[in-house]
Amino acid sequence: MKRVIVEYAKLTTDILDLLVEKYPDGYDYSDIISFKNAKGETIKAVEVKTEDTDYLVKISTKLEEAMEEYAEDEDFFEDNDDFDVNISDED
After folding, report:
1. What is the pTM of this model?
2. What span, in angstroms and rounded, lies between the C-alpha atoms of 6 and 15?
């Protein structure tokens, strides 16, 4: 299995989906993994997995905000089935 470290700036919607699915109420202290990188710096991350990849997503306040905003956006569209967007070329 491949292990990939991902920073907030490089999150994809697929990884955000995995994070929100695994941690719908946010992550807890017990969910945090700490490790040293090649530079000897301590990194804190949360883990999400796919069939072939184990993602370690670095923790930051921006990550928490992105997860909350993404979950709220998903809830909005799921709760509003009759929400239609009409785009026309008319001025």
Report:
1. 0.64
2. 9
Tokens 């009409």 found at:
86
Asked whether residue 29 is domain-assigned, the answer is yes
CA 34, CA 45: separation in Å to the nearest integer? 6
69, part of any domain: yes
The whole-angstrom separation of Cα 9 and Cα 15 is 12
Quote the domain boundaries for residue 41.
2-78
- The domain total for the chain is 1
For residue 84, being part of any structural domain is answered with no
**pLDDT tens digits along 34-91:** 888 888 888 889 999 999 999 999 987 677 677 778 777 765 445 545 444 444 444 4
- Tokens 């883990």 appear where? 47
Beta strand 42-49 with 33-36 is antiparallel
